[in-house]
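Suppose you are handed a protein chain with no further information: no name, no annotation, nothing but its sequence. What can you learn? This example shows the usual starting point.
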Amino acid sequence: MADDIFKKLIGHCKEYGYVFPSSDIYDGLGAVYDYGQLGVELKNNIKRYWWESMVLLHENVVGIDSAIFMHPTVWKASGHVDAFNDPLIDNKDSKKRYRADVLIEDLIQKYEGKIAKEVTKAKKRFGDSFDEEQFKATNPRVLSNQGKIDDIHGKFVKALDENDLAGLKAIIEDNKVVCPISGTCNWTDVRQFNLMFSTEVGSTADGAQKIYLRPETAQGIFVNYLNVQKTGRMKIPFGIAQIGKAFRNEIVARQFIFRMREFEQMEMQFFVRPGSEMEWFDKWKETRMKWHKALGFPEENYRFHDHDKLAHYANAATDIEFKMPFGFKEVEGIHSRTDFDLSQHEKYCGKKIQYFDPELGKNYTPYVIETSIGVDRMFLTMMAGAYCEEELEKNGKKDIRVVLKLPAAIAPVKMAVMPLVKKDGLPDKARAIIDELKFDFNCQYDEKDSIGKRYRRQDAIGTPFCVTVDHQTLEDNTVTIRHRDTMAQERVAIDDLYTILNKGTSLRELFKKI
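A reasonable first move is to predict its three-dimensional structure. Written in structure tokens, the prediction is:
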């Protein structure tokens, strides 16, 4: 069922101009996608929501835009040259390559799914008297599956901590994890694979210098820390935000735009006094979860997931996960990076990268709290959370309404204006309404097909408001406005449309919830 919904969602994205496979006329390029005319609007609105929530709502957070190309020593200092790897495993029969850690995480998720099914069945059977905690603590099938999860998880964490590639393979083989293509357990050994793309800069082959396409945007912030701190006269604590492209040679790219080779990140590095990092880590966890929940999707679709293995630079890390059609997956990471990055760059560049704290009267290397969110994953979160199929009944017949219940402030088109008929001056009146509102709102004119079909078309692209211009409009300057989610209709004055749209589609209403 979930797979069917995901396939429908992918098809919907292409059919309505949200996302296309890159180089589609040449049968596409693996794990690379283009955003269509509606997709780019939605993507820009997501970025605007994030950017303004960072730099408008926090007077101690400023933004930069660093270059994609950076000095190659940056990636040596950051550890990416030596340690930016994924553990990969091949199936000998299908010749397909997989991430070993993802195979194991999917295995754990399978057992979690079995527990969830048992709980759902029991809820239906016992009704209001159902005690979920007691059921999980006593039901034999739940306990059996939880035991398997605990055993696999313990071995998994140990193998990750010890970088034990043979241990990862043993988990896969012992649990008879099969290749989805071949259905066999005929696996190779697990190997590490560096994810960075490299290229050369220089006019001649002999004089060319090897550089990398950045695999993350964070390092562009760290190498500009002093520039921003001094020119902006920034005082600790303060943050630097950035939105930009990053590139990873994902061998096992899958699940549509969830994992791509070219993607976009929204990152904020928050510089704090050493010793205060855990306090700020908790504050940013809370703030970032509020940002997500302000969008209005069900709270049970979100959860925190603490990392089993911390990166070499971190002393705390958690992910905000969203329930995608293929399970709970990471959308945003919050990490306490300690002083690793600035200390490493100070070591490799030979320059002092410290902060003089006037309150303490001494210099120190700041600690860093990072919030990092993928624009493309957030896009998929929005589409997955908004996609809805509703069964309607009209004149004794059942019909399915496909609607994208996107938050109105993020929706690509805010309002569609529709003349009831293509004559009698109604199109001119509709155009005049758009001409008045287009400076502030993305509006769409629609006159093709019956009014019912036009409503459905706008539902499918997520337009929150539809306005119909009819013959009464010419008499009293009123129109019918239809609300997407409820399908309720009301008669309003044309002069009131700006106020209705401004209140109904403003980011201000989302910001109030953060």
